[in-house]
Amino acid sequence: MAKRIIQNEIQCHSCGEIIHSDHVHDFKWCDCGAVGIDGGLEYLRRSGNLHDVVERSMLIDEDALAACMQAISWADDTGRNTHGKVLAIIRALRQHDLLDMNKFGE
């Protein structure tokens, strides 16, 4: 199943800085220069000492992303407020088993 990048982010193990790439060719180094990141939401590129990279990127199945987008459209079409829109997205994520249901306790 095809995946889509929704967050291109790493943390440098050496200096602890979290860096992210927002768009294609948005190349950045951490403060200590040990690791770099590039690619935005198009590709994941890592540079430098790859042993110092703590991966924090997020990818989602295309189907799950489409379901979230449909949930937003439904919420807009039915006049839901911000809370209703958030709940619609949460339901879509749950339907695709992307939520840790153990964290939604009583």
Tell me what you see in this structure.
The chain is an alpha+beta fold and 106 residues long. It has two domains: 3-56, no CATH class; 61-103, no CATH class. It has helices at residues 62-77, 82-95, and strands at residues 3-7, 9-12, 18-20, 28-29, 35-38, 45-48, 53-55, 58-61. It has a three-stranded antiparallel sheet, with no helix packed on it. Strand 5 and strand 6 (45-48) form a beta hairpin. It is elongated.
Q: Give the total of beta strands.
A: 8
Count up the domains. Answer: 2
Largest sheet, if any? 3 strands, antiparallel
- Compute the average pLDDT: 96
Terminal CA distance: 34 Å
Strand order of the largest sheet: 3-2-7
Shape: elongated
Number of helices: 2
> What kind of oligomer do you see?
single chain
Q: Topology of this protein?
A:
Layout: E1 3-7, E2 9-12, E3 18-20, E4 28-29, E5 35-38, E6 45-48, E7 53-55, E8 58-61, H1 62-77, H2 82-95
Antiparallel strand pairs: 1-8, 2-3, 2-7, 4-5, 5-6
Helix pairs in contact: 1-2
Please name the defining characteristics of this protein.
alpha+beta; single chain; 106 residues; 8 strands; 2 helices; 3-stranded antiparallel beta sheet; elongated
